[in-house]
Design goal:
The chain is an alpha+beta fold. The chain folds into two domains: 203 residues, no CATH class; 207 residues, no CATH class. It is 56% helix and 20% strand. It is built from 17 helices and 14 strands. It starts with a helix and ends with a helix.
Amino acid sequence: MHTGVIVQLAMRNLRRHLRRTILTALVMVLGGGLLIFAFSLGDGTHENWIDSGVRTSTGHVTVQQPEFQTSRKIEHRLPADIRKRAETVLISGELTDQVVAVSSRLSLSALASSAAGARPAQILAVDPVAESAFSTLDEQVVEGRYLEPDDRLAAYIGVGLAESLELNLGARMVVQAQDADGEISGQLLRVVGIFRNGVPEVDQGTVHIPLGIAGEWLGSGEDVTNVGVVLADSAAAPAVTASVERALSEPIGRGEARVIGWREANPALAAAVAIDDFGNYVIFGILFLIIAFGIVNTVLMSVLHRHREFGVLQALGLTPGQTGAVVLIEGLTLTAMSGFIGVTLGGLLTWYFFGDGLDFSVLIGEEMTFSGVVIDPVMVPQFRPARLAQTLAFILFIGAVASVYPALRAMKLDVAEAMKFDR
């Protein structure tokens, strides 16, 4: 009965000062809506960065030899049996909903040369079909075409490498690298396509060749240096990593394989995302600190204008703790209702008006490189249920903290003095 009376008193005060309540609620609704818009756009932007980065590198999750991450040498490669096992795990029914593409690669450093000179290059021996789904390089053709399954002595090179070695379509080039026996071996290739990625390091040094030809040239057979996977959502990377680790527990236990996520494989990109996320939290914290002062002002003014009312209530039997509870419930109710409305409206409006993405090409241009990857200028907001719950919890926390001081003021009210109080 006491709880019902306390809640009724709190609701009555919110209704009695309706204009003040609505103005404060509008500020909180606006803050909640802005927070949801900013979080969803930020999450979508980060997902854009991550997707671009992992498609250029080794994927959201990759299986490789433990030593390969630091050595980048062909001797630290996955045997064909472990490669097949990893591919089977990644396309199994348990992970089908999350997996977008799987690509097995043989990656090595080499020297590319032509009649015009020589320069270092990064050779990526790939399956053309799997790589087309995994990477975006096949869509960045400037001249010619991407690799095809029946290609043999074919090379798909960056525009920077083509210019420096004066290579055109159909031109011949030689690549030299250390083979599986530790000897320097050369391979003649013919250029079938030239691409422009936008990242100078990629355009000037990347060469795609068929995986089968690399196996013959280097004596590595069907071995690869890594098996990578692109996921529908980067948030699933830890769960997929754990699943693959369980399935490959035997070779991992023998030290023949290791499963790593994109954060470990691409620490520069992970650091960039973390720094941007931290900056967003700081800005949002300042925003809601201002809103918190608005809540304090509203609830505290209510307390200061109700001295006599609280004095009468305590004279009729309400304890100081119950008096403070009335004020605290007012603040929490105002915060909860405003926060829920703000989060709901913010999510709906963001989805309705910006669901197809915001084009920032006017600000950043058609091509923007960030942490070594090309960023799509169209940022699509991403809505995560966990983020919505986190935002609502944050708003409720701010409201609870902001209501504590006015509640304490109400609890310390002197009944005798309050009864003398006259507005």
